Amino acid sequence: MKKILFLAGSNSSKSINYKLIVFTASQFAEQTVQIIKLTDFDLPMFGEDIEREKGYSVDLKMLYNKIKDAEALVISVNEHNGTVSAYFKNTIDWLSRLDRNFLEDKKVLLMSTSNGKRGAASALEYTKNVLPRFGATVVESFSFPSFSENFSEETQSISNEILLLGFTDVLQNFMHQIEQ
């Protein structure tokens, strides 16, 4: 049984990326699943002066330890103006200052969603290129377009059959990769 950490890169209280993470975690019945909210970890906007004067916060170290404790991660990123949110970027900045290789030996399923037809694809591509710099191996990725049209909150399921097939295939491939 693998220990998988699930998180969304959004700080919105109504985050559809978080909803996607919760749904995805429910598909991993045979694994040890932990879902976290990044908003539970108070990280100020990164700056070298803050780092020098205050060092690394307890919240940052707690988040870092949760990541280190996991064998794999599932991350869903949101998109602001064609890239990841400043909030998620800030989290990555802090973690990488604490330990440049904070994702070393971590296999990652990277997802994104939005209510647009591209499903935050630009943020997904940006993150796919950035996470390996910190040691991650992105083994699968999935962009979920038009979330509100393709996901039923009432039934907590993907309502678009083609998207569901693609999503299921990605999950199966990810599970195969982390079991190796």
From TrEMBL:
Pfam families linked: FMN_red
GO molecular function ontology, one term from the record: oxidoreductase activity
GO cellular component: a single term: cytosol
Superkingdom of origin: Bacteria
NADPH-dependent FMN reductase-like domain residues: 3-143
UniProt xrefs under InterPro entries: Flavoprotein-like_sf, FMN_Rdtase-like_dom, NAD(P)H-dep_reductase
PANTHER family tied to this protein: CHROMATE REDUCTASE, NAD(P)H-DEPENDENT FMN REDUCTASE LOT6
The protein's name: NAD(P)H-dependent oxidoreductase
Organism: Aequorivita antarctica
Lineage: Bacteria, Pseudomonadati, Bacteroidota, Flavobacteriia, Flavobacteriales
